[in-house]
Design a protein that fits this description.
With 350 residues, the protein is mostly beta strands. The chain folds into three domains: 135 residues, Immunoglobulins (Immunoglobulin-like, Sandwich), CATH 2.60.40.10; 102 residues, Immunoglobulin-like; 103 residues, Sandwich (Immunoglobulin-like). 0% of the residues lie in helices and 63% in strands. The strands form six sheets. Strands 1-2-5-12-11-7-9 form a seven-stranded mixed sheet, with no helix packed on it. It is elongated, with a radius of gyration of 31 Å.
Length: 350
């Protein structure tokens, strides 16, 4: 016989049910006593990824002698339990509680278990309680990275995409998208709710100050729900200006702190401006020293950019450094370009 136990949650979906077998499992601990655990099997439906689901079992001693529960242990870090050690007298019951953690889990079914070790004066045995949960992703983004149409340097642009919030009764009072790129921002401009979902239109804004070249940004959703920090996406586009740089970024292998690095890029003008009129001002980011830079004219519409750099201190190898270059024709700012410098440092001997 199956019994549906209503599970009332504090956030997302109001109608979650745990289906459990009411008969329970009997653990024989001696010829004169046994331990019944109810429910025998836990099955959770419609759990939003990022939410914590509470679990509970009732342990009943149906025998005539005490049963000592030595430990209650989860099978993995996705489940936490009360680390209990206690004794159940004959005819008495005890509730044990656990929590299923879904932060970072994959969508679909997931399995875990809780192991109970118990003994009497004669026997020591263990009981395994299986847990199955059906997880879904409450916030669905388009395929990432999201590619935007190129925009013109000095003009900027906007583009929108939709985010779907799944789950009956799902309501977010506050939604805020945070970008890690100062030249790209995101705003919620429209929300359309239905019985089982809500479609949210998010508009991206590329600043007029964005440097020309590839533009990439990662973003996350902050809201009034626990799962928000795990909703992360990325955007890529291109800011097209009068100057085209190839390559658009510089990559190096293992380098030593203080060793000079040489980077060359070819620049091509889209507009009819003489390269002899073009001048450059370059600034390196923290951790990178710009030793020398210069422009060398190759033809009427192309030139060579030469940079000599040095890493001044150790930083995380996965973090890119940047060199910002301002190109001018006379006193007029013609273009601002950012060249990412990616490298890995040699380990320092201690």
């Amino acid at each position: 016989m199956n019994v549906a136990l209503p599970y009332r949650r504090s956030g997302l979906v109001a109608g979650l049910f745990i289906v459990a077998t009411a008969m329970g499992v009997v653990l024989r601990t001696s010829s004169s006593g046994d331990l019944r655990v109810t429910p025998e099997r836990m099955h959770l439906y419609d759990i939003p990824i990022g939410e914590e689901a509470p679990l509970a079992w009732e342990l009943t001693n149906r025998g005539v002698s005490p049963v000592e529960v030595q430990s209650v242990q989860p099978s993995c870090s996705c489940t936490s339990v009360e680390d209990l050690a206690f004794t159940i007298d004959p005819g008495k019951s005890r509730i044990i509680r656990a929590t299923l953690h879904t932060l970072g889990a994959q969508e679909g079914p997931t399995n875990a278990r809780v192991t109970i070790k118990a003994r009497t004066q004669k026997n020591t045995q263990e009981l395994i309680l299986p847990i199955t949960a059906e997880l879904y992703r409450p916030v669905q983004l388009p395929p990432m990275p999201l590619s935007m149409q190129p925009v013109a340097y000095g003009v900027g642009g906007t583009e929108s995409f939709d985010v779907v919030l799944r789950g009956k009764g799902l309501q977010l009072k506050r939604m805020e998208f945070i970008s890690d790129n100062p030249f790209l921002s995101l705003d919620v401009i429209n929300r359309r709710a239905s019985d089982s979902s809500e479609r949210v239109t998010v508009e991206t804004h590329i600043s007029r100050e964005a440097p020309s070249g590839p533009l990439r940004a990662a973003f996350q959703l902050n809201s009034d729900q626990t799962y928000a920090p795990i909703v992360i996406g990325s955007i890529r586009t291109e800011v097209r200006g009068a100057l085209i740089a190839r390559p658009a970024e510089f990559g190096f292998g293992l380098v030593e702190v203080g060793s000079p690095l040489y980077a060359d890029a070819s620049l091509t003008m889209r507009d009819k401006i003489s390269m002899q009129q073009l001048v450059i001002e370059a600034v390196a980011a923290e951790g990178v020293e710009l030793l020398e830079y210069r422009l060398e004219s190759l033809s009427a519409d192309s030139c060579r950019l030469q940079l000599q750099l040095a890493v001044t201190k150790e930083q995380a190898t996965s973090r890119p450094r940047f060199v910002d270059c301002n190109f001018r024709v006379g006193q007029l700012l013609r273009e601002k370009m950012r060249f990412p410098v990616r490298l890995a440092l040699l380990p320092t001997a201690h």
